[in-house]
Amino acid sequence: MSTDTTEQATDTPLRAYRVLAFPVAVLGIFFLAPFGFMLATSFYRRIEGGFYEPAFVTDSYERLFSKIFLERTAFSIQICLLVALLVVLIGFPFTFFLTRMRQRSQTVLLVLTLSALTLSEVIVAFSWNVILGRSSGLSNVLVWLGLMSEPKSYAPSYLAVVLGLMYIAFPYCILTLYPSLSRLDREITEAAETLGASPWRTFWTVVVPISRLTILAAFLLVFVFTLGSYLIAAILGRPQHWTLSVFISDQATFNANVPFAAAMAMFLTVLSLAIVGAVSWLGGRGERVS
Length: 290
What we know:
Layout: H1 2-41, E1 45-46, E2 52-53, H2 59-63, H3 67-99, H4 103-114, H5 121-131, H6 138-144, H7 158-182, H8 186-194, H9 199-210, H10 212-227, H11 231-236, H12 244-253, H13 258-289
Helix pairs in contact: 3-7, 3-10, 5-7, 7-10, 8-9, 10-13, 12-13
């Protein structure tokens, strides 16, 4: 009996290791190994007129403190925070009222919303370029309605980049919010309305506070997702509207400066993790205080 118990206790950790072996291997091969190569490449020395050679120099990281790079960093953070805020402001009430519909209506609207995920960034970017363009875009409709005297082009512009990023991030925001809001007990909101609260007051004073952590998760997901978006800013924006992702691609492909592109990618990764950690810490602290 004691022998069987000992063998079972010895076999349990081995089974756990076997179960974990596959996800750990996938993580190591597809994330840690490329991450390690990128980190090593960021310290390589660039060869003028050539490519780069293995070395341990910090030239690429020193360039990160240049004025133009710091300006691009601040712009990327600013526009991605703005997009995340706007998407959550629109997506949260949309998802809440979606979960209050009948099941068939929920399914139809959910499928229509998430069908945007089937479109690539290239299609989305060029579609918005047409919608905001002068020849056949939205301004032509406004002229036809008599609201404008002549058609105008709104792309490329800052507005076009914001709209494009919001469009590609909106389904992910819904995917984050929907599971939590669909499980929200209807008796909670009904109790508030029974006590005399209007539907909007119930929404702002009951539903929003209960869903703080879900809102925070959706905000962080949209921020990190848009921070890594490349094609939207490249197609819908002017050079002054390019984000760090565009600069990384520009350095790697057109300037053949792979070490600097790797250093920027490392900086972007650390920056994303730092902001996610800071916002998560503030959210957790607020939750503990309340």
